[in-house]
Recover the amino acids of this structure.
């Protein structure tokens, strides 16, 4: 093997500054991954702390105020510092140019700037935590957030700053997808992960400015007492809810669309089968991104908005449900007449189908206005969005991480351990969150530090399983890191699962610093398992 | 189904509770069917087409669509969600159109207790008394931040806003005492901001409302104070056993009678009748060190005799604990 081929982006160039000032999308992606995993860990520890407090009805471990801080930080960290940036920032950055056959993203310097803006936002959040925390909930509802004595300003400032990182990444990806594709890579030949990133980026650049301006208004209200949201100053708290959810509902699609993209990659590769309904999956991504802008009012069914609004928002909500449902069937049918291998990524993808279907279907319950009024702000909602956010996005993220780990790091983790952890995550997740549906039906409100004795058994059960869930995720990440030990390198030519997209077929694992030694020539579509045989290195 | 309902839901007390639970079951059973198709289909396909040991890696089928299947996947869920949508709206209209003959009760949320104002004068705290088989219109508002008024057995809830009135209603079909919960996060005492709704026979209700506020004249002050302690929701934040909740325990204050109390700005004062009176009426002026100044004022909610009663009750705690 020529010396040149041994070079890869992890080892060349060397030195800490070459990382901190890198313009290489793969290195920036890894730095996002590093940041994301740290915040995932922090958010996870907070979650386990909450479950510990909730294992029994009274104030057993922490006070009300501490609990309120914990749940606020758990939500804010998981959403703004992990889920929103992690998949587009980490997996998106590493993979997008590779999948397009490009040398880098369209604006590499802007890409590095995005990362540092994210870091600055994260520092604001860390400052909030160190200086005593914030207790408003990640939703910052007024007038509580304008009157609370906790550190609302640094926290909202952090979210404002992170918003710019999100917008710039979105902009960069859109330009990259439009302009950096190799000749012959037409829209319908793009891997579905690219379509998903495209939809996500559109939402990022259109919705994020709204949360940014809302956070600024909130900060101004606290600092200068301008009366926009606080009724004591002549403002309107419901206006805040409209502003907030106008971003935060589309933000759900910033979180879930990349997960759809990952699943659309994993299932065809590990089933060695052409993806079912390519065009439908591609276009439903865009339509979900669009319709996602029109349903924010379903977060406000008990706020007292007009009856007409209630009816309209309920109606449009179901239009998101239908294309999502058809997508699930498409992923399932992709396995038809394929060659399905039960590898760790595939196990995560199958878990995703199971869990996300529950998450989606329970959304139908909440979309029905009359039933939502009973379930609103109860544990039913908590369970529903965890089935979507964790059962959907985080499971897909873990699946994607296992799928592209050999590609990006050039090492293979212990697959048996990874599979057992996936089972642990699956069981632990259901054990933790399924009882919360029952709690919600019985009327257990969310954001309670203490609760009535009648809810004790289910809470206790949920807390027990959350330990299994946390442990399984922790071991699975450790298992990945353990693969980085010395003398565990894969052959650079490895294509472990037999992937057919450019990052598998045209570059080494880990990739060359410039991605491809020469511009790749497209030989087949992303899922042409009916036309070309690509031998997987690992057969299972 | 009855046993399942008993397991899944709180009691069905309002007139529309059963309808809402039935809507739940409709979505529930439809979901189970769809879920079963996805999960069983997935398991079947994954196992049937699994890559076995010794299999050759080969070209696989190019089948990637089926118009009939896709139409089915589109149309069947569409029909189901259409029914759900219409049912959801139909039931919702029933929940918001208040009958004309409803009794109107004003509910005010405040951190962290509920005040109920009855049509003929009379006010209760944290105990909503309503007649059975009578429509009750609830007019909601808040004195500070957002709260949300949730009665699980009635299957209804509504936010309380500081700047406008929201309305909900219910008609309780069964006498009993049921939970009221706050479901919009409102700070430190959010999880303790519970109350009870007491559904009585209409005749009992009439008697109760007529008596509101008039029965306190003839009982000794410390007994009246003990009643007010729960009735006016002091117990949400102040315990009687010496343990600290949101505020200092009455017992601790009682035991420190005549001694110095230190405040968060470093100043201090002797604990006496005047101190207690001003901490009830102007709680924000002196905040005990180690606590947050979150107590609302009780100005206008307690008359002089009631203030005296609470002070007498607090003092009596020390004597009790000495015995």
């Amino acid at each position: 093997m020529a010396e040149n081929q041994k070079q890869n982006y992890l080892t060349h160039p060397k030195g800490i500054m070459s990382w901190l000032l890198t313009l290489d999308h793969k290195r920036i992606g890894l730095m996002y991954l590093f940041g994301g995993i740290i915040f995932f860990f922090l958010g996870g520890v907070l979650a386990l702390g909450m479950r510990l407090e909730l294992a029994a009805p009274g104030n057993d471990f922490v006070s009300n105020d501490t609990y309120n801080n914990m749940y606020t930080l758990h939500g804010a960290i998981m959403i703004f510092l992990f889920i929103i940036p992690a998949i587009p920032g980490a997996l998106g950055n590493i993979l997008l140019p590779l999948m397009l056959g490009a040398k880098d993203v369209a604006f590499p310097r802007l890409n590095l700037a995005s990362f540092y803006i994210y870091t600055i936002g994260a520092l604001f959040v860390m400052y909030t935590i160190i200086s005593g925390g914030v207790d408003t909930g990640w939703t910052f509802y007024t007038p509580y957030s304008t009157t609370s004595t906790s550190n609302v300003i640094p926290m909202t400032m952090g979210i404002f700053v992170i918003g710019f990182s999100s917008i710039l990444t979105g902009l960069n990806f859109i330009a990259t997808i439009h302009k950096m594709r190799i000749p012959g890579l037409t829209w319908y030949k793009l891997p579905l992960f690219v379509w998903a990133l495209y939809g996500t980026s559109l939402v990022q650049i259109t919705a994020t400015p709204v949360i940014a301006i809302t956070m600024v208004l909130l900060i101004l209200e606290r600092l200068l007492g301008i009366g926009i949201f606080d009724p004591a100053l002549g403002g309107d708290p419901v206006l805040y809810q409209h502003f907030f959810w106008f971003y935060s509902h589309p933000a759900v699609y910033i979180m879930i669309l990349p997960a759809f993209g990952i699943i659309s990659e994993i299932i065809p590769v590990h089933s060695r089968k052409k993806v079912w309904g390519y065009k439908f999956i591609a276009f439903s991504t865009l339509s979900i991104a669009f319709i996602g802008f029109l349903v924010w009012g379903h977060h406000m069914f008990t706020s007292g908005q007009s009856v007409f609004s209630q009816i309209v928002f309920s109606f449009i909500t179901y239009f998101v449900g239908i294309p999502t449902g058809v997508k699930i069937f498409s992923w399932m049918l992709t396995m038809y007449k394929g060659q399905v291998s039960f590898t760790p990524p595939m196990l995560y993808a199958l878990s995703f189908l199971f869990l996300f279907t529950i998450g989606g279907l329970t959304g139908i319950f909440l979309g029905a206005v009359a039933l939502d009024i009973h379930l609103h702000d109860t544990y039913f909602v908590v369970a529903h969005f965890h089935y979507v956010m964790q059962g959907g996005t985080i499971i897909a993220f873990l699946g994607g991480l296992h799928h592209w780990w050999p590609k990006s790091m050039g090492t293979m983790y212990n697959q048996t351990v990874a599979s057992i952890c996936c089972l642990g995550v699956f069981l632990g997740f259901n054990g933790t969150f399924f009882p919360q549906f029952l709690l919600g039906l019985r009327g257990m409100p969310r954001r309670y530090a203490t609760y009535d004795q009648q809810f004790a058994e289910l809470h206790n059960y949920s807390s027990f399983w959350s330990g299994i869930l946390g442990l399984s995720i922790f071991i699975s990440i450790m298992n990945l890191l353990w693969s980085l030990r010395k003398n565990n390198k894969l052959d650079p030519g490895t294509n472990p699962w037999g992937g057919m997209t450019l990052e598998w077929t045209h570059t080494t694992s880990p990739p060359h610093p410039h991605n491809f030694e020469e511009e790749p020539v497209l030989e087949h579509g992303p899922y042409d398992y009916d036309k070309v045989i690509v031998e997987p290195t690992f057969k299972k | 189904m009855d046993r399942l309902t008993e397991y899944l839901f709180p009691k069905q007390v309002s007139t529309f509770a059963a309808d809402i639970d039935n809507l739940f079951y409709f979505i529930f059973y439809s979901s189970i069917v769809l879920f079963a198709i996805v999960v069983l289909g997935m398991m079947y396909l994954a196992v049937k087409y699994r890559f076995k040991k010794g299999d050759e890696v080969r070209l696989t089928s190019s089948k990637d669509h089926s118009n009939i299947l896709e139409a089915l996947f589109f149309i069947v869920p569409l029909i189901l969600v259409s029914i759900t949508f219409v049912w959801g709206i139909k039931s919702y209209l029933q929940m918001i159109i208040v009958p004309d003959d409803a009794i109107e009760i004003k509910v005010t949320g405040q951190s962290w207790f509920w005040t109920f104002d009855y049509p003929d004068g009379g006010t209760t705290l944290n105990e909503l008394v309503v007649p059975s088989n009578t429509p009750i219109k609830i007019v909601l508002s808040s004195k500070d931040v957002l709260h949300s008024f949730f009665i699980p057995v009635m299957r209804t809830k509504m936010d309380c806003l500081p700047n406008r009135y929201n309305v909900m209603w219910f008609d309780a079909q069964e006498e009993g005492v049921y939970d009221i919960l706050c479901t919009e996060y409102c700070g430190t005492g959010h999880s303790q901001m519970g109350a009870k709704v007491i559904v009585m026979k209409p005749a009992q209700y009439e008697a109760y409302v007529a008596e509101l506020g008039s029965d306190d004249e003839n009982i000794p002050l410390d007994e009246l104070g003990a009643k007010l302690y729960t009735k006016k929701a002091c117990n949400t934040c102040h315990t009687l056993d010496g343990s600290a909740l949101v505020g200092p325990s009455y017992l601790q204050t009682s035991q420190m009678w005549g001694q110095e109390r230190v405040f968060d700005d470093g100043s201090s004062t002797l604990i006496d009748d005047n101190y207690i009176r001003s901490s009830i009426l102007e709680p924000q002026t002196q905040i005990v060190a180690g606590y947050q100044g979150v107590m609302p004022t009780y100005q206008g909610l307690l008359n002089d005799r009631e203030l005296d009663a609470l002070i007498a009750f607090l003092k009596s705690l020390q004597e009790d604990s000495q015995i």
